[in-house]
Amino acid sequence: MEEDAISFKFKENWQNSKKWLYISLFLLLVILFLGSYISTTNISGLKDVTTGNYTLGPDLDPFLYLRIAQEIVETGKQPNPDYMRYLGMVEPYYNFVPLSIVYLYKFLNLFSDVSVEYAAIIFPVIFFGLSIIVFFFFVREIFYKKEEFQKDLVAVLATAVYAVIPLMQHRTTAGIPELESAGLFFFWLSFFFFLKAWHSEKKILKINKNY
To answer: How many Cβ atoms from other residues are within 10 Å of residue 121's Cβ?
Structure first.
């Protein structure tokens, strides 16, 4: 009877406190570090021995994004027309990735002198790390009706699998600044906001009287 009472008191203490949330956030940081570390293990191999600068991984589109980002850094705007694509395109190639690389480059240069190439290779790792954080809270929101320790436990386990699964690492590793790495962040973020609004007790409905 005494053991049952101790067990019940222990369970009640964990369920009715935020201790498990703090532990889960700590575990999230560990998972974030692990996922980011795996994604950056190839950075040393991305250095060009002839120039001493970094280069991208074996993918085609990232080189286009990097070239456009370099043009924006050097001239302040995208090439228009772009004579290196289809004998000169009338309209420039608009994409989220080149501009993100430029802003990341400017942000990193506030703390250290880095090249545009380095900002490009670290771009997918940063967005993958952000997607890990958002994915954790998205999974936690799915089980919002469960006890605190239950939804935190599920979120930690799901995020741990998400952070190390090879299918994710393939498109989010350093040196591959592609749409997938940034897309994953906004993908999970949109689902999280949708669930947050769906589970909200305060419903706001605005009706346009003109229709």
So the answer is: 26
